[in-house]
Amino acid sequence: MDFLWRAVGGGHYRVSLTNLQFSKEKSQSSPLHAHVRKGRRSRLGLCEKRPLGGARGKAERYAEWRVSQLRLQRRVFCPPGHGPNAELTAEVSAPLRMQLRWTQRGMMWLGALLALLLCSSLKGQENSFTINSIHMQILPQNTVQNGENLTLQCLVDVSTTSPVQPLHQVLFYKDDVLLRNVSSRTNRESYLIPHVRVCDSGRYKCTVKLNNKEKATPEYEVWVKGVSDPRVTLDKKEVIEGGVVVVNCSVPEEKAPVHFTIEKFELNIRSAKKKREKASQNQNFVTLEFTVEEQDRAIFFQCQAKIFSGSNVESSRPMRSELVTVRESFSNPKFHIIPEGKITEGDDLQVKCTVQVTHQAQSFPEIIIQKDREIVAHNSLSSEAVYSVMATTEHNGNYTCKVEASRISKVSSVVVNITELFSKPKLESSATHLDQGENLNLWCSIPGAPPANFTIQKGGMTVSQTQNFSKRVAEWDSGLYTCVAGVGRVVKRSNTVQITVCEMLSKPSIFHDSRSEVIKGQTIEVSCQSINGTAPIFYQLSNTSKPVANQSMGSNEPAIFRDKPTKDVEYWCSADNCHSHSKMFSEVLRVKVIAPVDEAKLSILLKEEVESGMPIVLRCSVSEGSSPITYKFYKGKESKPFHQETLNATLAIWHEDTASKEHEGQYYCTASNRANLSKHVIQSNTLTIRGKRSQQQNAV
After folding, report:
1. 90-112, pLDDT tens digit by residue?
2. Assigned fold of 426-502
3. Taking CA atoms, which of 78, 305, 468, 545 is between 20 and 30 Å from 344?
4. 129-225: which CATH topology?
5. How is domain 334-416 classified at the architecture level of CATH?
6. Locate the Ig-like domain: which residues (predicted)?
């Protein structure tokens, strides 16, 4: 609804009740006079006005009634700077869609009266408001299936003294992140999340702000169940054995990270042939390569996506790909055995393995023929491999043909039976252990006694061209003997017989590496050796009282024994080998053991207090030591002994017939023999001698 009037300052102004905005028009005559602030807009109500003359009539009362019908802005106040002389400023944002036409001059009076009445009613008033409550509804419910629509409704209850609802802000949050900010005058605002996904799970709330007042709802947990169906695409629909199929699995409408499981299936088989898993941290898809195996014929792939949502794991439905057709690169291998039927030793045996290669193969596969684990033939230049040999019973067994090309391997097997022409020969001997000079008899035989050619061999050398062999043996006749028998082209080797010829031992010699004398406690090495005789040789070292040690030698080198004798001792050794003769004994080895001097002691035979003129007798003795022993007597700190002698005894005596004052002091002795090194000389205890006056000296 628009009104046009002329302001006091001149010019005409248009008032639109749709927006209550003012615009200046060209000058037109009008009986209405009012003060209007030119060009000023505001989200405010009507401000102070200058009174107009005239009595209130029906038109004015009608204007008051129309104002009560209009949904004007909730807050009506004067903007800063508007005082008693403020000019008319107004804006109404409520939707008034009144299409009124300006048909007569009286309607202009009605609009002016309406504006003046509103300003008159609001003059000098300040509105109050409060937020009573705020609540959020989640539709259809807090738990929704993936792909459904989710609506968040924020319900606000505001009380105000204004006749119109104030403009307030409604803010929607997810996990404290702002989703939407809307200005509203209504008590209900909605936020639609179409086709929710797992990433939409979380905690939601809404907040209302009204000037400096604010209130928020509690957080509401929203749980999106399930994951949208993954898309499975392949790089090819037909593949050759050994080839690779690239599988792409994606969930375009979900957000990473996503855990994908891709399985390979054979058509009409329930269980998966291969399963691979991969987590994508930054993308909502993965690409994996699957090798096509030789057993694959018609395959497809199935993908499932899983996403972690808080403590829950949401899973999609398994989705399958298109069917992939697998073409053979080569056929399964096939055996051909020649001759067919019965095969006898001596026949020419041919084991052939063939394969058919398709035109799609870029090269021939490798064909391998194995007997047990041994490769007997192979070929990679044609479509067959052949193993040819003269048949013997050793060629009996299972043969395997493997055809391999890159990742593909195909296998087939066949059993070959060879009929024996004659049995394996048997070699026997009169004895396997013989003394040198005894007779050896060997004979070779075949069960059934067919006519055959025989040879007897020792270590690959023929020793006889006949079935039997006899000889007076020497030590060098020891070794491995076999018999070889042949019928036609078939040659067979007998069992092996070990013959040992033993040479009698020579008398062992015994000796040691030390001088004739050995110091007590030191280790000596005693050697025992038989120069002649067949090894191994068994030696035993004994002394006067008991055996010391045993030792086996694989040659004629001396056996070395170690011992620590503590006294004079006699050693001998015995030697024995495979010869039937009894043990051989050595001569006796006598070893002299000298004992070092141990624990020297100095003592005085008379009193420690010696009277002048009386004799002094000192004795130096040892507890153990081999003769001769050197004794030395020392006084005080003198470096040279005042007496020294070497005796074949365990003590030495020094005496002085007439004692005097100069014999007072400290004495000690040392004792040593040839077993003591210079730095190991034994020193005795220290003895103190004190002088004493005689009775005659005391009387004088």
Report:
1. 333 333 333 333 344 455 545 55
2. Immunoglobulin-like (2.60.40)
3. 468
4. Immunoglobulin-like (2.60.40)
5. Sandwich (2.60)
6. 132-217, 333-412, 425-500, 596-688
Separation of CA 132 from chain center: 61
Beta-carbon contacts of 271 under 8 Å, excluding residues fewer than 6 positions away, are: none
Query: Which CATH superfamily does the domain covering 509-594 fall into?
Result: Immunoglobulins (2.60.40.10)
Q: Calculate mean pLDDT across residues 662-681.
A: 84
Q: pLDDT per residue over 538-547, tens digit each?
A: 999 999 878 9
Q: What is the 3-state secondary structure (H, E, C) of 273-330?
A: CEEEEEEECCCCEEEEEEECCCCCCEEEEEEEEEEEECCEEEECCCEECCCEEEECCE
Length of the chain: 700
Cis upstream peptide for 628 (omega within 30°)? yes
Segment 62-86 mean pLDDT: 39
Domain ranges within the chain, ordered by starting residue = 2-122, 129-225, 231-327, 334-416, 426-502, 509-594, 598-695
Amino acid (one-letter) located at 403: V
Parallel, antiparallel or unpaired: strands 433-435 and 497-502: parallel
pLDDT in tens, 311-359: 889 999 999 999 999 988 888 999 999 999 999 999 999 999 999 988 7
**Residue 354 corresponds to which tokens in the numbers above?**
């063939």
To the question of domain 231-327 being in CATH 2.60.120.330, the answer is no
Q: Which of 198, 476, 207 lies closest to 312 in space, CA to CA?
A: 198
pLDDT digits (tens, 9 = 90+) for 266-286: 998 888 999 999 999 999 999
Distance CA 675, CA 595 (A): 7
Binned at pLDDT 50, 70 and 90, residue 173 comes out as very high
